[in-house]
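Marked as duplicate of an earlier ticket. Keeping the data here for the record.
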Amino acid sequence: MIGFFTLTCVEMSADLKHAKIGVSVMGSPEEQKRTFDGLVQATGYIQHNLAGQLAIKYTPKIEFAYDERKEFRVEELLAEIKKERDEHDGERQD
């Protein structure tokens, strides 16, 4: 089962035959692993569908990689925003 994920970046080789795709996955560590593993298992299917959409000679070989950069951790950012909002609301009530 694949959960919620975001493609954060794509690095193409100069010959366009390889694509390294950064993926940020939301959820618990178990959900993240399950989602990432499912995405990796679907690589062949994704490449096959991509081949029909691209107007280039070769379909890139896809490699997925975890993107752990802080700016792409949506869940953490949303939690920080909620905490700040709650603190701000608490200050107004005092």
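See parent ticket for discussion. The chain has three helices and three strands.
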